[in-house]
Automatic annotation (TrEMBL):
Keywords, ordered alphabetically: Membrane, Transmembrane, Transmembrane helix
Places the protein is found: Membrane
Name recorded for this polypeptide: TSN3 protein
Gene Ontology CC terms, in alphabetical order: plasma membrane
Matching Pfam families: Tetraspanin
Species assigned in the record: Alaudala cheleensis
InterPro entries named among the record's database cross-references: Tetraspanin/Peripherin (IPR018499), Tetraspanin_EC2_sf (IPR008952)
Domain of life per record: Eukaryota
Transmembrane parts of this sequence: 7-30, 50-71, 83-104, 204-229
Membrane disposition: Multi-pass membrane protein
Length: 241
Protein backbone atom coordinates (compact mmCIF):
# COMPACT_ATOMS: atom_id res chain seq x y z
CA UNK A 1 0.00 0.00 0.00
CA UNK A 2 2.82 2.44 0.84
CA UNK A 3 4.47 1.71 -2.52
CA UNK A 4 1.16 2.35 -4.31
CA UNK A 5 0.74 5.67 -2.50
CA UNK A 6 4.28 6.77 -3.34
CA UNK A 7 3.92 5.77 -6.98
CA UNK A 8 0.55 7.49 -7.27
CA UNK A 9 1.97 10.69 -5.77
CA UNK A 10 4.89 10.62 -8.21
CA UNK A 11 2.56 9.99 -11.15
CA UNK A 12 0.34 12.86 -10.03
CA UNK A 13 3.22 15.32 -10.32
CA UNK A 14 4.29 13.68 -13.58
CA UNK A 15 0.82 14.23 -15.06
CA UNK A 16 1.22 17.99 -14.59
CA UNK A 17 4.47 17.96 -16.52
CA UNK A 18 3.13 15.73 -19.27
CA UNK A 19 0.10 18.03 -19.60
CA UNK A 20 2.48 20.77 -20.77
CA UNK A 21 4.11 18.33 -23.22
CA UNK A 22 0.73 17.32 -24.61
CA UNK A 23 -0.38 20.95 -24.94
CA UNK A 24 2.83 21.76 -26.81
CA UNK A 25 2.30 18.89 -29.26
CA UNK A 26 -1.34 19.82 -29.83
CA UNK A 27 -0.57 23.50 -30.45
CA UNK A 28 2.34 22.58 -32.71
CA UNK A 29 0.13 20.45 -34.93
CA UNK A 30 -2.78 22.93 -34.99
CA UNK A 31 -0.54 25.87 -35.86
CA UNK A 32 1.23 23.88 -38.56
CA UNK A 33 -2.03 23.10 -40.33
CA UNK A 34 -3.13 26.72 -39.89
CA UNK A 35 0.10 28.15 -41.34
CA UNK A 36 0.09 25.74 -44.30
CA UNK A 37 -3.66 25.52 -44.83
CA UNK A 38 -3.06 25.98 -48.57
CA UNK A 39 -1.56 22.48 -48.67
CA UNK A 40 -3.49 20.80 -45.82
CA UNK A 41 -7.00 21.68 -46.92
CA UNK A 42 -8.80 18.95 -44.94
CA UNK A 43 -9.85 20.44 -41.61
CA UNK A 44 -10.05 17.05 -39.89
CA UNK A 45 -6.28 16.61 -40.13
CA UNK A 46 -5.83 18.83 -37.05
CA UNK A 47 -8.08 16.54 -34.96
CA UNK A 48 -5.14 14.78 -33.20
CA UNK A 49 -3.96 18.20 -32.07
CA UNK A 50 -7.32 19.10 -30.56
CA UNK A 51 -7.49 15.72 -28.84
CA UNK A 52 -4.02 16.35 -27.40
CA UNK A 53 -5.20 19.70 -26.01
CA UNK A 54 -8.25 18.06 -24.45
CA UNK A 55 -5.98 15.42 -22.91
CA UNK A 56 -3.72 18.14 -21.46
CA UNK A 57 -6.68 19.86 -19.81
CA UNK A 58 -7.97 16.64 -18.25
CA UNK A 59 -4.48 15.70 -17.04
CA UNK A 60 -4.41 18.69 -14.67
CA UNK A 61 -7.33 17.61 -12.40
CA UNK A 62 -6.20 14.00 -12.77
CA UNK A 63 -2.81 14.90 -11.31
CA UNK A 64 -4.48 16.79 -8.45
CA UNK A 65 -6.66 13.78 -7.61
CA UNK A 66 -3.70 11.41 -7.75
CA UNK A 67 -1.73 13.53 -5.26
CA UNK A 68 -4.75 13.96 -2.96
CA UNK A 69 -5.49 10.22 -2.92
CA UNK A 70 -1.86 9.41 -2.11
CA UNK A 71 -2.16 11.62 0.98
CA UNK A 72 -5.67 10.80 2.13
CA UNK A 73 -7.77 8.10 0.51
CA UNK A 74 -11.32 9.06 -0.39
CA UNK A 75 -13.71 6.62 -2.02
CA UNK A 76 -15.30 9.35 -4.12
CA UNK A 77 -11.93 10.63 -5.31
CA UNK A 78 -10.72 7.12 -6.10
CA UNK A 79 -13.76 6.41 -8.24
CA UNK A 80 -13.47 9.77 -10.02
CA UNK A 81 -9.79 9.13 -10.71
CA UNK A 82 -10.59 5.77 -12.30
CA UNK A 83 -13.14 7.39 -14.62
CA UNK A 84 -10.71 10.15 -15.60
CA UNK A 85 -7.95 7.63 -16.30
CA UNK A 86 -10.30 5.64 -18.52
CA UNK A 87 -11.34 8.81 -20.39
CA UNK A 88 -7.71 9.83 -20.86
CA UNK A 89 -6.77 6.38 -22.10
CA UNK A 90 -9.52 6.52 -24.75
CA UNK A 91 -8.49 10.03 -25.85
CA UNK A 92 -4.84 9.12 -26.15
CA UNK A 93 -5.52 5.90 -27.99
CA UNK A 94 -7.66 7.82 -30.50
CA UNK A 95 -5.10 10.61 -30.84
CA UNK A 96 -2.19 8.19 -31.37
CA UNK A 97 -4.11 6.16 -33.95
CA UNK A 98 -5.21 9.25 -35.89
CA UNK A 99 -1.71 10.76 -35.81
CA UNK A 100 -0.17 7.57 -37.18
CA UNK A 101 -2.75 7.12 -39.95
CA UNK A 102 -2.81 10.80 -40.96
CA UNK A 103 0.97 10.90 -41.17
CA UNK A 104 0.95 8.13 -43.77
CA UNK A 105 -2.09 9.42 -45.65
CA UNK A 106 -1.13 13.10 -45.79
CA UNK A 107 2.46 12.50 -46.88
CA UNK A 108 1.20 10.98 -50.14
CA UNK A 109 -0.99 14.03 -50.83
CA UNK A 110 1.63 16.71 -50.21
CA UNK A 111 3.46 16.29 -53.49
CA UNK A 112 0.33 16.68 -55.64
CA UNK A 113 -0.85 19.66 -53.59
CA UNK A 114 2.51 21.45 -53.86
CA UNK A 115 2.76 20.64 -57.55
CA UNK A 116 -0.67 22.17 -58.13
CA UNK A 117 0.33 25.39 -56.32
CA UNK A 118 3.48 25.69 -58.41
CA UNK A 119 1.62 25.13 -61.69
CA UNK A 120 -1.09 27.67 -60.80
CA UNK A 121 1.32 30.39 -59.70
CA UNK A 122 0.85 33.47 -61.90
CA UNK A 123 4.20 35.21 -62.16
CA UNK A 124 6.98 36.28 -64.50
CA UNK A 125 10.51 37.61 -64.13
CA UNK A 126 9.59 41.24 -64.61
CA UNK A 127 6.43 41.20 -62.52
CA UNK A 128 6.23 38.98 -59.43
CA UNK A 129 3.66 40.08 -56.81
CA UNK A 130 5.07 37.57 -54.32
CA UNK A 131 1.91 37.22 -52.23
CA UNK A 132 0.49 33.91 -53.45
CA UNK A 133 0.11 30.77 -51.36
CA UNK A 134 3.26 29.18 -52.71
CA UNK A 135 5.24 32.37 -52.01
CA UNK A 136 4.11 32.31 -48.38
CA UNK A 137 5.16 28.68 -48.01
CA UNK A 138 8.55 29.22 -49.67
CA UNK A 139 9.34 32.19 -47.39
CA UNK A 140 8.31 30.39 -44.19
CA UNK A 141 10.20 27.20 -45.01
CA UNK A 142 13.07 28.85 -46.90
CA UNK A 143 12.63 26.44 -49.80
CA UNK A 144 12.17 26.62 -53.55
CA UNK A 145 9.85 24.51 -55.70
CA UNK A 146 8.52 21.08 -54.90
CA UNK A 147 11.86 19.24 -54.99
CA UNK A 148 14.23 22.10 -55.96
CA UNK A 149 14.31 25.29 -58.02
CA UNK A 150 14.22 23.37 -61.33
CA UNK A 151 10.51 22.67 -60.77
CA UNK A 152 9.81 26.29 -61.73
CA UNK A 153 11.49 25.76 -65.10
CA UNK A 154 9.00 23.02 -65.96
CA UNK A 155 5.92 25.22 -65.68
CA UNK A 156 4.37 26.43 -68.91
CA UNK A 157 4.02 29.98 -67.57
CA UNK A 158 7.73 30.22 -66.77
CA UNK A 159 8.87 28.87 -70.13
CA UNK A 160 6.50 31.26 -71.98
CA UNK A 161 7.94 34.40 -70.39
CA UNK A 162 11.47 33.78 -69.26
CA UNK A 163 13.05 30.42 -68.51
CA UNK A 164 15.99 31.74 -66.51
CA UNK A 165 14.38 32.93 -63.29
CA UNK A 166 12.30 31.74 -60.35
CA UNK A 167 9.94 33.63 -57.99
CA UNK A 168 11.64 36.02 -55.59
CA UNK A 169 10.25 34.06 -52.64
CA UNK A 170 12.93 31.46 -53.46
CA UNK A 171 15.66 33.89 -52.44
CA UNK A 172 17.49 33.52 -49.15
CA UNK A 173 16.73 36.17 -46.54
CA UNK A 174 20.32 37.36 -46.31
CA UNK A 175 20.36 38.25 -50.03
CA UNK A 176 18.12 41.31 -50.14
CA UNK A 177 19.07 42.15 -53.73
CA UNK A 178 18.09 38.73 -55.06
CA UNK A 179 15.50 38.81 -57.86
CA UNK A 180 15.29 35.09 -58.59
CA UNK A 181 17.88 35.18 -61.37
CA UNK A 182 19.27 31.73 -62.12
CA UNK A 183 22.62 33.30 -62.86
CA UNK A 184 23.06 33.48 -59.06
CA UNK A 185 21.88 30.07 -57.91
CA UNK A 186 23.81 30.46 -54.64
CA UNK A 187 21.30 33.14 -53.60
CA UNK A 188 18.37 30.74 -53.82
CA UNK A 189 17.10 28.53 -51.02
CA UNK A 190 18.44 25.01 -51.12
CA UNK A 191 16.04 22.09 -51.27
CA UNK A 192 12.37 21.86 -52.10
CA UNK A 193 9.34 22.53 -49.94
CA UNK A 194 8.04 18.96 -50.08
CA UNK A 195 10.84 17.47 -48.00
CA UNK A 196 10.65 20.22 -45.36
CA UNK A 197 6.87 19.95 -45.09
CA UNK A 198 7.09 16.19 -44.72
CA UNK A 199 9.75 16.58 -42.04
CA UNK A 200 7.60 19.00 -40.01
CA UNK A 201 4.51 16.84 -40.41
CA UNK A 202 6.35 13.67 -39.37
CA UNK A 203 7.88 15.36 -36.33
CA UNK A 204 4.53 16.74 -35.08
CA UNK A 205 2.62 13.49 -35.64
CA UNK A 206 5.30 11.25 -34.12
CA UNK A 207 5.64 13.61 -31.16
CA UNK A 208 1.94 13.24 -30.38
CA UNK A 209 2.06 9.49 -31.01
CA UNK A 210 4.92 8.84 -28.57
CA UNK A 211 3.53 11.27 -25.98
CA UNK A 212 0.24 9.39 -26.03
CA UNK A 213 2.00 6.02 -25.86
CA UNK A 214 4.11 6.99 -22.83
CA UNK A 215 1.14 8.62 -21.11
CA UNK A 216 -0.99 5.52 -21.63
CA UNK A 217 1.62 3.43 -19.80
CA UNK A 218 1.78 5.95 -16.94
CA UNK A 219 -2.01 5.96 -16.66
CA UNK A 220 -2.11 2.18 -16.48
CA UNK A 221 0.38 2.35 -13.60
CA UNK A 222 -1.78 4.99 -11.91
CA UNK A 223 -4.86 2.82 -12.38
CA UNK A 224 -3.12 -0.20 -10.84
CA UNK A 225 -1.87 1.89 -7.89
CA UNK A 226 -5.33 3.35 -7.35
CA UNK A 227 -6.82 -0.13 -7.55
CA UNK A 228 -4.48 -1.39 -4.84
CA UNK A 229 -5.54 1.47 -2.56
CA UNK A 230 -9.22 0.80 -3.36
CA UNK A 231 -8.70 -2.83 -2.41
CA UNK A 232 -7.46 -1.80 1.03
CA UNK A 233 -10.45 0.50 1.41
CA UNK A 234 -13.36 -1.25 -0.35
CA UNK A 235 -16.60 0.48 -1.29
CA UNK A 236 -19.40 -0.18 1.17
CA UNK A 237 -22.15 1.32 -0.96
CA UNK A 238 -22.59 0.92 -4.69
CA UNK A 239 -24.21 4.32 -5.18
CA UNK A 240 -20.91 6.17 -4.76
CA UNK A 241 -19.85 4.72 -8.11
Amino acid sequence: RSCAQSLLRLLGFTFWGTAAAQAFGGLLLILMFKNYRYVFQESYLSLPGWLALATALILLPTGVLAVCISVKCSRHQQGTLMYLLLLLFCLELSSATLACSYCVRTASQLESAMGYLVRQHNWNCSQDPGNSAVDVIQRKLQCCGVHNYTDWLKTSFSSWYHPACVPESCCKEKHSQCKGDLGHVEQLSEGGCLKKLESQLRFAMLYIFWCCTVLSILELLAGVSNGILMRHQPFRELRVL
